[in-house]
Amino acid sequence: MGRWLHSGAYIGKYLDPDTVQFNDALLSDTFVDKTELLAFTNRKINSPRNLICATRPRGFGKTVAASMIASYYACGTGSAELFQDLRIASYPDYEEYANQYHVIMIDVCQTSQDLLHAQTQQRELSPKELEQQVYDYCSMSLVSYLSLKIEEELKEAFPECADWEGGLADILLNVHLTVPAHPQFVFVIDEWDDLFRSDASAEAQRGYIDFLCNLFKGSSYQPYIALAYLTGIYPIEKYGLQASIGNFDEYTMIDPLNLAEFVGFTEPEVRELCKKHNMPFKTMKKWYDGYWFEHVGAIYNPSSVLRAIEAKTCKNYWTHISSCESLSAYINQDRRGLKQAIALLMQGETILADTRPSPQDSREDVLAQLVHLGYLRCLSGPERGSVFPRQETDMGHSRKRSCSTAGNGHFPQQKTDIFHNKKRTFSTTKNGHFPQ
Question: Are both 291 and 382 inside the same structural domain?
Answer without folding.
Answer: no
